[in-house]
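EI: anyone free to look at a 123-residue chain?
SC: sure, send it
EI:
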Amino acid sequence: QVQLVESGGGMVQAGGSLRLSCAASGRTFSPKNMGWFRQTLGKERELVAAITWRGGFTAYADSVKGRFTISGDNAKNTVYLGMNSLKPEDTAVYYCAADMTGRTWPPTSFDSWGQGTQVTVSS
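SC: here you go
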């Protein structure tokens, strides 16, 4: 059973930066892809960034391209989301997720989820 734990969320002013971390634990953590999602009340969960666990290919939602960077550290079983030039509309709960099967790219289905970390961007 894979467990994902996010950290690094918080409150920041518009234009600021945050770096989220997602640490994975469990037997032989070997996903095909990892993703970061976000969700605000009343809206669907949105995939903002994804990365292949081997090879480092990345994909981003148009709304975050050029501002967010997803990266992974295989040795630490950790995936990161660097967020720069934050905007109030980036305010959301951010979740990381693991795609263990890798059927599609960008990934469209995920098998394990973290509990989420709140990011609040004030204007």
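EI: The chain has a mean pLDDT of 95.
SC: 👍
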